[in-house]
Design goal:
Elements lengths: L2 H40 L1 E4 L2 E9 L7 E10 L5 E8 L2 E12 L2 E6 L4 E3 L4 E4 L4 E8 L8 E8 L3 E10 L13
Parallel strand pairs: 2-11
Antiparallel strand pairs: 1-2, 2-3, 3-8, 3-9, 4-7, 4-10, 5-6, 5-9, 10-11
Pfam families: PCuAC (PF04314)
InterPro entries: LpqE-like, Lxx211020-like, PCuAC_sf
Protein name: Copper chaperone PCu(A)C
């Protein structure tokens, strides 16, 4: 090999090594960004053996007095727990409701006695089934905002979660973990 060829190969070798190092650092940074973004989008809260995933609500039109609240709660423990109460500074009161169809008529009623979360199971609060009602809104939830609510469970205790406010026509979007 000629001296000139070896010199070029040496420079290219350094260039390739430098390029590979920069590429490796870039890939690592992108991976870290992806992982941290997943944590933000996952929107999860824990209390005791319970994991509350993606609490969300819809934006409300001006003058609306109620808003719904949705999330999934998973119980990784060996005994059942029960959601007993909800409170939020966005409304005068909050209630657990169940929607259903009886004799072809859609009904919605408050759930008394709380909602059981079975041991090793999960319960989805979703449109068309169990859900929260924030009654007597003190302000209109707007898309892109968040508001907090305290969920009190019989065994795990109380946890404050942040409800992400999505658009009026949304159904939980890509963040909906209810299924």
């Amino acid at each position: 090999m000629s001296h000139t060829f070896r010199a070029r190969l040496g420079r290219n070798s350094r260039f390739l090594r430098s390029f590979e190092e920069r590429l490796g650092v870039t890939v690592l940074l992108l991976a870290l960004l992806f992982v941290s973004a997943q944590a933000v989008f996952a929107h999860e809260f824990r209390v005791g053996d319970l994991e509350i995933v993606h609490p969300w609500s819809r934006a409300t039109p001006p003058g609306a007095k109620v808003a719904g609240g949705y999330f999934t709660v998973t119980n990784t423990g060996s005994s059942p727990d029960r959601l007993l109460s909800i409170s939020s500074d966005v409304s005068d009161r909050a209630e657990l409701h169940e929607m259903g169809v009886k004799d072809g008529v859609m009904t919605m009623r408050p759930v008394s006695g709380g909602l059981e979360v079975p041991a090793g199971g999960k319960v989805a609060l979703a449109s068309g089934g169990y859900h929260l009602m924030f009654i007597g809104l003190k302000r209109q939830p707007k898309q892109g905002e968040t508001f907090s609510a305290a969920l009190t469970f019989e065994k795990a205790g109380t946890v404050t979660v942040e409800f992400a406010v999505e658009g009026m026509g949304e159904t939980g979007g890509m963040h909906d973990h209810a299924n």
